[in-house]
Every structure is written in C-alpha cells, then in structure tokens.
Amino acid sequence: MRARYARAAMILPTQRHLFDLPDDVTWINCAYMSPQLHAVSEVGKESVIRKSRPWLLKPEDFFTDSEALRKLFARLVDADADGVALVPSASYGLAVAAANVPVRVGQRLLVLAEEFPSNVYPWRELAERAGGQVVTVRRPEDGDWTHAVLAELDERTALVAVPNCHWTDGGLVDLVRVGQRAREVGAALAVDATQSLGALPLSVAEVKPDFLAAAGYKWLMGPYSQSFLYVAPRFREGRPIEHNWLMRGGSEDFARLVDYRDDFQPGARRFDVGERSNFVLVPMAMAALRQLLAWGVADVQETLRALTERVAKGARALTLEVPPESQRVGHMVGLKRRGGYGPDVAAKLAARKVFVSVRGDSIRVSPHLYNSEADIDRLLEELDALV
C-alpha cells in the first residue's frame, strides 16, 4: 500500500539536518529517546575536554551553567527559576514529591491504568507508609482520560499523579481541569511530563501542579541523566531526599564550607541532586533547550500533529484502531490491532530500519522534526506488509 494522502501544511520544515540521523534510518520513536542534535553533541565533546582540564574550572562554574539551565527550563514551562530543581531523572523528582505530599490514613492516591512504573512505585510506597490507598483509574472505553480522572477525584483524594498524555498511546489528560478539581478537593497534583514536555505546550501558571517532573532525553532532546523538577511555592521549604553541600546557604564560598549551615539555597534548589553542576551534561541540556525554545513548542506540536494525523489515516486504512484526534496529543499516536500483534513486530520493523515501540497493546508512533511525510509513508508500507 502506498499512501495517497494530500500533503499537510507543515508549520516548521523538516529539521533532519540538525540531527545525527543516517539517511537510511526511519526513526519515529522520540518517545523512546531522541536522536541527538549535532549542536548538543558538539557541546558535549567540548565539555568533556574542558572537564579533563580541571585547572580551567573555577568555583563560580559550579553555579553559572546550572543557574542558566534552570532559567531555560523555567522559560519552557512558564515558571520562575526559583521553582526549578535539577535532578537526574523523573523518578528522582517524583521521589521528592512522595517525600513531601501529606497523606492521612485512608486517603486515596490516584494513578492511571497502565501508567509508566516510575509514576506508580513511589505512590505505592507512600500509601504503605502513610496508610493510604493507591486507586487506579481504569482505561476509559471512549478514550476520555480527563473525564475518567475527574470521576475518581473527590474529597477522599490526597494526591492525583498523572501525565499530560498516556505514555503508551498519547491519550490526552487535560491538566488544567484536573488541577482545578484537585485544588477544590484539597488534593496535591504531581505530573510526570516526560512524554509531553517539549512537544506539547504546558504552563505551570495555568496547570498549577504541586510537582512536575520530566526526563530530559526524550522530547527535551537532551542527554541521559539530566532531568528537571518544578516545585510549587507551598512545597519549596520541604524536605529534600538527600543533603549535598551545593544546596546549603553560602556554598559559593568554598573557603567557608566547613562552617556548616542549616539554611538552604533559595526556592527549589534544596531539591537539586548532588553534583548537579555536571560539567558535561548541563551544557548539553542547555544547547537542547535553546534549540527547542527557538522552534517554539506550540509550532513543534502543530507540525507533529500533521504527521500523526497522516499515520492515523493510513492506520485506519489498514483496519488498525486509532484514538480520535480530540482525545490524544499531536506528537504521539498508538495503533491497536484486534487480536494484537506478534511478539516481534517491532523487531521486524527494525530489521527494515523503521523504528517504533510497542507499549501495552499498541504500536506507539512518535515522530519529531527530523521526520517527514516520506517517513510516515514508509512506516505505513511496512505495516501493510506485516498486518
């Protein structure tokens, strides 16, 4: 089958030339990991050389780049820099949340069915420790995750832990509505934005989450092990899960570090991971966020929506099930097949150098700006041969 769909109006032109991506590879798998921007790789190489020469590193270098990265992330989510902590993973950020969200005996902690494990395990541990109960919101038959969450979110709830979209198929959760309801019933809102942030606009000023964590190596296009945490003002004097010297007041004065202090650096910096000044990863993450901000997340979303709509049309022609556009994000789409797929469908596609993921019972297709309509058509041709 050759797709015969009209060309969509692309907001942003293909940016493949900016990525380290061979011509014969069809990578439609950003939800797994983004290919690296050439600019990010170059900064990484320069940073490795710099780190190998410690005489070039000054005390202020432990603070300058990390503060610049903090500000870049704050711009991305419409936040203040004091609300941003630098962490190594989304799970680290969610562990900070679990250490600070109050839960009383019998209260409920809401998570989605088939949620990513890192947004389930910390809440199980918190519920066990506090005498609460993890409640799983069932997958809605009509695909409306927002309605399903709101139906369970009541005065019994201490916490609702949700993503902006489901990681298996891109099913949308309206965080603004969920956040508003959470505040009405006195529940905390923790968001794992790993599978949306950078591809879908999000403003913490509108959503008002208590905690928002995001891994940096997917839609944020940064290096592995450099991630981010936003903390709302009411939790910024909370309890960190580790104690490192950088988070303490006066840590800029290396000569006085033995004058131990009980006060912390301002805002969410108390939640920074130890060695947050990573002299290789931080500059790489900065380069990635600068490129992302230059494109504009709203334009990224609309460009990718044109591609996933092409996927959806072609998949329906193959009698695959696709969530309606109104119930999913524009940068990711899950393709289900009645009776399921064989266990090696992703491997068979990979053998043809077409790369997607299988998550749950869906083939998850997640393009980015390095993809084109030709990539989508190639995927559909290979799927036609398989299904």
Quick overview of this protein structure:
33% of the residues lie in helices and 13% in strands. The chain is built from eleven helices and twelve strands.
Task: Please give a structural write-up.
The protein is α/β, with parallel strands linked by helices and 387 residues long. 33% of the residues lie in helices and 13% in strands. The protein has eleven helices and twelve strands. The strands form three sheets. It has a seven-stranded mixed sheet, sandwiched between helices. Helix 2 runs parallel beside helix 8, helix 3 runs parallel beside helix 4 and helix 9 packs parallel to helix 11. The protein is globular, with a radius of gyration of 22 Å. The termini are close together.
